[in-house]
Design brief:
The structure holds 3 protein chains of 3 kinds.
Chain A (H helix, E strand, L loop, with lengths): L8 H28 L17 H8 L1 H33 L6 H13 L2 H15 L5 H24 L4 H9 L4 H30 L2 H6 L6 H10 L4 H31 L1
Chain B lengths: L9 H7 L1 H10 L3 H31 L17 H8 L1 H35 L2 H15 L3 H12 L4 H8 L13 H26 L2 H9 L4 H12 L1 H16 L3 H6 L7 H10 L5 H34 L1
Chain C lengths: L8 E10 L2 E11 L4 E5 L6 H9 L6 E6 L2 E2 L10 E4 L11 H11 L4 H14 L15 H13 L5 E5 L7 H18 L2 E6 L2 H7 L2 E6 L2 E6 L1 H6 L4 H6 L3 E12 L2 E6 L2 E6 L10 E7 L4 E3 L7 E12 L3 E8 L4 E8 H6 L5 E5 L4 E3 L3
Parallel strand pairs in C: 3-8, 3-9, 6-7, 7-8
Antiparallel strand pairs in C: 1-2, 1-4, 4-5, 9-10, 11-12, 11-14, 12-13, 14-20, 15-19, 16-17, 16-19, 17-18
Helix pairs in contact in C: 2-3, 2-4
Chain lengths: 267, 315, 361
């Protein structure tokens, strides 16, 4: 930065302050929330006078919370598998040769990501009813899968666009039919993109509230459980649950970020 | 590679396996047929799963009963749309939502632009990714958890009030919660990333020398920003605002948890029709359709405007 | 099928249209077994289109391709006994060198032991054994090029297609690889179909060169024929450096043509079709075929001129000589000693009729 002209220094200090203020804005609420989970009192609020780990031991002893965790994870995994399969297929079609209506198809492919949350949730609710899918796990998995397809399409398309056409031609030239060249040449090339998109879908599904809320049956997903508990009053127990969820998602997110970066570097 | 008795690899055996061979011959007989087979599933999926729910919502909004009870006949009607205009309890939240979303989008833009600008222009390439990653971490955390974090921050016994009290600025806590302010803080918190990333990527594309050239020609900091950076990042601003606006109109849990009776948004109104039993679904569907149409119309107009602005600038 | 007298490849009336543009216009050509044939031309001349049709990556608009007596026009690439070395090599980045080489063998349905034997054989042939377990990203440009060649040769194709495979190499390495490629072709007796826009490369390696322009064949012959007896102005200018002499047809003398140029009468080799008397014609003389002397030389063609510019090129010098009343310029190469001795005095330049080709257009 030393080669920058003197005139820019004043701006830089000013902008750096804004940046760090923004960092505070996004981190402080979460840090406070985590701290509150260690408060030795039923009452949420500052100051914290004494500390305890009881809320955490309570969370891990609570069968309902644990089964909710499992339920959310199962939904995330299943919906991700579907999104990846469908999204990759759509991306391969869209990144292939030009055809009439490709732009339209692309628009439709990313549509679910652009529909505002509440509208998407009730549209899925109505459609699930029409298809005869009962509220519950199946309905949530389906809604999450459809909603997450656009992200897979975008990520896989970006990666596919950098695959030289000659790679496929070489595979065909050496005797592979279209399907075998896809499995043995295209798919290995897409692995980083597919992994990255998978993590993204897992987190989107795990964190989703509005679709899970409107399509869920009696069993809540984790965000729905936290929401329900919040409506009946704040308690450090909720902080403990939320903190566990927070660390789980943040850890996966950071790991995925580093992992995809390493994969990209290698290629 | 697994091996069979013949010693050939799996792929060679698959390729020469009768049924597979026949299938490939059938599907790849001509480029046209191969394309149709590749295209069939995505087209069917997109129509039935992406477009289908929206069309079904539209269809239900035009009926008088859904789900249809046995022995009841379903009729076409526009009454559901009529209901919207008939009662201020419906259209007030609607306009409130649009205004809120607009204001929150603008706030997000104002807050994140300097942050993106700092990252893209004043940080070395190596640190850029690190500082950006730092901001991404909180955004991996879900909507509900982050909303709850804001509740703790802004509550009457929350961190902000405690800090103000300790500093001796206030005697009694300021009631931040359950107002449009707390809602705004929460929604900006949730959407900031969707603004930050498009802004960052459009700013990053600008060559740094451009700013220096402007400075060289005698432009001050404000002029440089207004005449160089701003016009060249309209694309990022436009897509960031569109995204944040659409997302803001769709929040349900955050307004419920952070807002109060005077800040009811349209999402809560729509949701109301799906909580009560009975034949309220068509009305809910109609209201959701109105909301979606309005949001799309506004963002489309906004994008047209921004495009015109950009083209005007190029002249 | 293995009749050695029939051509390996028959191209019959091949045309390819991309929308309005005609990439290839009614090409008919035979390629013999064991031939190193090069398609040479500027970009967009149709050479790559021909190659891609032979490989099966494009289907021609009209015409047929017959390989070893079998019509393969509509066969997909995986069914053809043709392999290709791609311009960017197209090595599979997630496979080792050995896996890349084995890929084609595997899909041919070879036994595992056979695959191993054949890969080892081809890798030792191309001196790649020590790189077998490396990934393409860990190889240099020249090594990658060899791997691409090994991978394409491994399935023992009837015809090997090479799509400007030396373009990515630096100039020094290129010369070495050219020799290597030619010797590999000799030792394997394979038919090589080479595509390039580099005339020097084509002259060095080929048994036969097909010069293409605007989707059509300009000339088809050995490197020597093309160089010394170009059939058209395009070929004369595209291959090597040349002097183009625009004059007027005066008559013919046996297999020679008599022409007027800058007030002098010159003799040149006749093209296929003899133009009429008085017609404007062009003749081509290579730079190194012009000889300098102080006295009038004994050659059939001789003109007097004045050196106007010299450029020192190391072992030789490039000269520019103004000839005749209008000062028409001739370019010539001479060895450095001769070049230095030439001053501003008038000099004689002479050349034999055999070294001057009268062009067809």
């Amino acid at each position: 930065m030393n080669d920058r002209p003197e005139v820019f220094r004043g701006n830089r200090i000013f902008l750096a302050c804004i940046y760090w203020a923004f960092v505070l804005y996004v981190f402080v609420p979460l840090i406070l929330m985590v701290l509150m989970g260690f408060k030795d009192s039923n009452f949420i609020g500052f100051p914290i006078k004494s500390w305890t780990l009881d809320w955490y031991t309570g969370v891990f002893a609570d069968a309902e919370v644990l089964s909710t965790f499992g339920y959310s994870v199962a939904i995330a995994v299943l919906s991700t598998l579907i999104s990846i399969f469908v999204g990759t297929w759509i991306a391969v079609l869209l990144e292939g040769r030009k055809f009439w209506g490709r732009t339209l198809l692309f628009g439709l492919a990313v549509l679910p990501a652009l529909v505002p949350g509440i509208i998407s949730a009730i549209a899925f609710r109505i459609y699930a009813r029409w298809l005869g899918i009962e509220p519950g796990m199946g309905a949530i998995v389906w809604a999450h899968a459809v909603h997450n397809v656009p992200f897979v399409v975008l990520v896989v398309m970006a990666r596919l666009s950098t695959l030289p056409k000659s790679q496929i031609e070489a595979a065909r030239d050496l005797g592979a039919d279209p399907l075998i060249s896809f499995i043995r040449v295209t798919l290995p090339y897409l692995v980083p993109a597919i992994l990255g998109a998978s993590i993204f879908c897992l987190l989107l599904s795990f964190d989703d509230f509005v679709r899970s809320f409107f399509l869920g049956g009696y069993e809540p997903t984790l965000p729905v459980l936290i929401f329900a508990k919040l409506r009946s009053g704040m308690s450090p127990e909720i902080n403990a649950i939320a903190t566990v969820a927070l660390f789980l998602t943040a850890a996966i997110g950071i790991w995925a970020e580093r992992f995809t970066r390493r994969m990209n570097k290698e290629n | 590679m697994t091996e069979d008795k013949s010693g050939r690899t799996f792929w060679a055996r698959l390729a020469s396996w009768g049924p597979y061979h026949a299938l490939m011959r059938l599907t790849t007989a001509s480029p046209r047929r191969q394309f149709l087979i590749l295209a069939a599933f995505p087209i069917l999926w997109v129509l039935s799963q992406h477009l289908g729910p929206m069309l079904q919502m539209l269809r239900v909004s035009l009926t008088d009963a859904y789900p249809v009870a046995p022995g009841v006949e379903q009729h076409f009607t526009l009454d559901n749309y009529g209901r919207f205009f008939g009662d201020s309890i419906f259209w007030m939240p609607f306009f409130r939502t649009l205004i809120f979303a607009g204001v929150f989008t603008f706030c997000t833009l104002i807050i994140t632009y300097p942050v993106a600008y700092f990252l893209a222009r004043h940080v070395s390439r190596k640190n850029q990714m690190l500082l950006l990653l730092l901001l991404l971490i909180p955004f991996w955390v879900g909507e509900i958890v982050r909303t709850y974090a804001i509740m703790i921050l802004l509550g009457n016994t929350g961190a902000v009030n405690l800090a103000l009290k300790t500093l001796g600025l206030i005697d009694r806590p300021i009631p931040f919660m359950y107002t449009s302010f707390s809602m705004g803080v929460g929604i900006v918190y949730l959407t900031a990333l969707y603004m930050l990333l498009p802004l960052y990527s459009s700013l990053e594309k600008l060559p740094k020398s451009m700013n220096e050239a402007a400075a060289d020609l005698g432009a001050g900091a404000w002029t440089r920003f207004r005449r160089v950076s701003l016009p060249l990042t309209i694309e990022g601003i436009s897509s960031g605002c569109t995204l944040v606006f659409l997302i803001s109109t769709g929040f349900y849990a955050t307004p419920v948890l952070l807002g109060g009776p005077s800040t009811t948004v349209f999402a809560e109104t729509i949701a109301g029709f799906f909580h009560v039993a009975g034949d309220e679904w068509p009305t809910g569907a109609a209201f959701a359709t109105i909301m979606f149409a309005a949001a799309l119309a506004i963002t489309a107009t906004f994008q047209k405007l921004m495009n015109a602005l950009r083209k005007g600038d190029k002249k | 099928m293995t009749d050695q007298t029939t051509p390996l490849v028959r191209i019959e009336g091949l045309s390819k249209h991309f929308g309005e543009t005609v990439a290839l216009n009614n090409l008919t050509l035979d390629i013999a077994r064991g031939e190193f044939v090069t398609f040479l031309g500027p970009s967009g001349c149709g050479k790559s289109t021909t190659l891609r049709i032979l490989g099966g990556f494009e289907r021609p608009t009209t015409g047929r391709v017959i390989l070893d007596g079998e019509d393969v026009t509509n066969q997909p690439p995986e069914k053809r006994h043709v392999n290709m070395v791609f311009q960017d090599y197209a090595l599979f980045p997630h496979m080792t060198v050995a896996q890349n080489v084995a890929f084609g063998l595997e899909l041919k349905g070879m036994r595992k032991s056979e695959i191993q034997r054949r890969s080892a054989e081809i890798m030792s042939f191309l001196e790649l054994e020590s790189y077998a377990t490396r990934y393409p990203a860990q190889l240099s440009g020249g090594q990658r090029q060899r791997v691409a060649l090994a991978r394409a040769l491994a399935p023992d194709p009837a015809l090997l297609l090479l799509d400007e495979p030396l373009g990515a190499l630096d100039a020094k390495l290129r010369g070495q690889v050219q020799q290597e490629l030619k010797s590999i072709q000799r030792r394997t007796h394979k038919t090589f179909f080479f595509v390039t826009h580099d005339q020097e490369e084509a002259l060095t390696m080929s048994d036969r060169i097909v010069v293409m322009n605007k989707g059509k064949v300009e000339q088809d012959g050995t490197p020597e024929e093309l160089y010394f007896r170009p059939a058209s102005r395009f070929v004369a200018e595209f291959i090597g450096e040349t002097n183009l002499l625009s004059g007027r047809m005066r008559g013919s003398d046996g297999d020679k043509i008599v022409m007027d140029w800058e007030g002098t009468t010159l003799l040149g080799k006749a093209p296929a079709g003899v133009p009429g008397e008085g017609q404007p014609i062009t003749a081509s003389v290579r730079l190194e075929k012009l000889g300098f002397s102080a006295e009038r030389p004994q050659t059939a063609n001789a003109v007097q001129g004045r050196v106007v510019a010299k450029t020192f090129l190391g072992s030789r010098m490039a000269m520019q000589i103004a000839v005749g009343e209008n000062g028409a310029l001739l370019k010539a190469y001479v060895d450095a000693d001769t070049g230095q001795s030439l001053g501003s005095d008038p000099v004689w330049i002479g050349w034999e009729p055999d070294n001057m080709a009268v062009l067809n257009d």
